[in-house]
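Quick illustration, no need to memorize.
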Amino acid sequence: MKVLSLFAGGGLWDHGFTCSGYAEIDTAIEHSEMAMLNHQANYHHSTETQYKLDSVNAVLRRILTGDEPIKHMDCLIAGCPCQGFSGLNRHPDSEGSLRNCSLLATTLSWIETFMPAYAIIENLPRMMENRSPNEGKQAVCHLVALGYQVRTKVCEVAKFDGASKRKRLIIIAAAPGAVLPVSIDETSDPRACAVTMADLPPVHNDVTINILDPYHVPISRLKVSLQDEVSLRNVVQRIPTSPSGMSLSKAYYHGHLTPSQNKWFRTLNDNHQAKNSSRYRRIDPDKPFPTICTKIAPDSSANGEMMHPFEHRTISLREAMRAMDLPKNFLLIGTVAQQYGVLGNGVPYSLGAMLGRVVGKCWRATLGRGAGPPASTRNKESQTSVQLGLSVTVPNIAPRRHKRAIVLDEEDEKSDGNVSSTSDVVFLEAKPVKKNRLE
């Protein structure tokens, strides 16, 4: 199955999606050179992968104007930038945030241009929550209008053999005639982070070079702040390791800080002094890892849960890689901040691998439906969605569909199988409404 990867990033999703052997990345598009170098350093499933260091908007423009040819793709995967949908974004209405949100529309334009047999969109669950306008629901409606079968699900990575509490919205679209996954079943119970990093040796706060494991160094050193006249490493040492989940504010309100540290704490703003602040919070060892974000900010009141459960330091880059379920041979390129950014922008490896298996099995079942010689004599290597007529054909005149389609959500259909034997789109007989075209 040939895959077109938009917003390819460091290749975490692509690497996981193709590890089962059902698919290979034909073209990967990414605008960040450092992220693309990470992708190229790790993706070895195909030697013919074409990399395009450019904006998805610019590449699509060249295709639509005829400067580049339209290649046949069996599957399109897109992890649209999520900053515009993030609850941590303090400026959701800024130009940059709105531009990020608009890339979802760009993704739909790619799907409408290539009409692949399968399309998978990944983003934050907030994109589908009750908000106006609701971009996620509009995207689903657009896919249905194109004739696709659509299924949506919010996946918590820890319930799919993952190590983090990260939640992602997955939208899977299948062309008419292609098998749509009946469900995306949870495969495991949440795994405690203490189990995930149990075999890693202790690391001190001041370790900057680790010959045995270059990635196993703290992502941020705790230093002495001359301006605030406080030693952050001494402050963290005063944050107890038990009970679990202790933070700077909890240490203050429980009386664990020294008088000078108490005086410094009272100079912080109200958010940092709040009892529920996550500033310098220790990760709960009995729960999965928290979400790995793009910026290293242990002093953040909203995203500061980055302290080791038992050691007086931030988590290491290796531990962050474990949280993203990356294999040991996965390479990261760039500074520590750049490497951490690649992790924060990526899709956890276990989630990508699960999606690759689910869609791959449906793809194989779809190939089995095609006319031709019996399965025992059929050359499966040469079968494509073009030969089976799986690409969506859209008339050049409006309206595009003479029947209205309804999306079945996963809760609407209870089934124990992994693939659906029939289409999940119900077509209602309805006459199209003629509208005057704008000049």
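The longest strand covers residues 149-156.
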